[in-house]
Write a structure and sequence with these properties.
265 residues, alpha/beta
Length: 265
């Protein structure tokens, strides 16, 4: 656990610096009481990041105290999401690179992982775009596994078809409301949605997706999304400008341009 907290503190320091120095605001020098946040102009710009960092460390301490050991905490975190079974437990060392496109995508994903705390603070999204069979789901799953295991981030992973099916089923069985289904995805520290364009969404589905995307954008919570179409096609044929522009405005985009692996011997 100490190593995880050390990583949080190191990345926080590299990104936003220290909040206080010898009991004074690091930006204006004002004397501060214990736990007090300065209201000077520079401090106000960064206080949300400092507060988010405090909550992040607190959540890790809670997981450890509830589960006694780091390994048990990892199992607890892992219960929040389920990547596809064939990628269960995989890490970056399991990803095979066969093309320049995969090399670039892998590099960008690893860089995103190495700055996970900063990306969490700023709500930086990661978009995987490319044709079917190009390894998007595998790399997304690996990133999800690594963030959960090595940072203890609470991740939610879902295929869009399954999510929309959960919502449709709720109309029939009334066991869960749509709000109950969607809430964990809105509030997860990192949200992974695979194949957002596997089906053409209805107006109702677009409303729900807009609610999730807009909420997470306002709260600066990162989303990792995969799609088999270009941004232009996602805008024009699937989700519209209001949703796609929110995803793109604070995103790193990976374009998988290599051929479908499934057709290769």
């Amino acid at each position: 656990m100490e190593k995880i907290i050390e990583t949080y503190n190191e990345q926080t320091l590299n990104f936003i610096g220290k909040r206080t120095n010898s009991g004074k605001c690091s930006f204006c020098g004002k004397e501060l009481a214990s736990g007090e946040y300065c209201d000077c102009k520079e401090a106000k710009k960064k206080n949300r990041f400092f507060k988010k960092g405090v909550n992040l460390v607190r959540s890790v301490n809670d997981y450890i105290s509830m589960n006694n050991t780091l390994e048990e905490a990892r199992k607890h975190i892992g219960s929040f999401f389920k990547t596809p079974e064939k990628f269960d437990g995989m890490g970056f060392e399991d990803y095979e690179i066969e093309s320049d496109s995969e090399k670039k995508g892998f590099k960008t994903t690893v860089e995103y992982y190495k700055k996970a705390v900063q990306n969490y603070f700023t709500g930086m999204n990661l978009l995987f775009l490319g044709k079917y069979g190009t390894g998007k789901t595998m790399l997304m799953s690996i990133l999800c596994n690594e963030l959960a295991n090595n940072y203890l981030f609470t991740c939610r992973y879902v295929n869009a078809v399954n999510l929309w099916q959960q919502i449709t089923d709720s109309f029939k069985n009334n066991e869960k409301s749509v709000k109950d289904i969607v809430s964990p995805y809105k509030n997860a520290q990192f949200l992974f949605i695979d194949d957002v364009d596997k089906i053409k969404p209805s107006d109702y589905v677009r409303e729900i997706f807009y609610d999730v995307v807009n909420y997470r954008t306002e709260k600066e919570l990162p989303m990792i999304i995969s799609a088999n179409h270009s941004l232009e096609e996602l805008d024009e044929k699937y989700y519209g400008e209001a949703i796609i522009s929110r995803l793109v405005q604070n995103s790193k985009i990976i374009n998988f341009t290599h051929k479908n692996r499934r057709f290769q011997g």
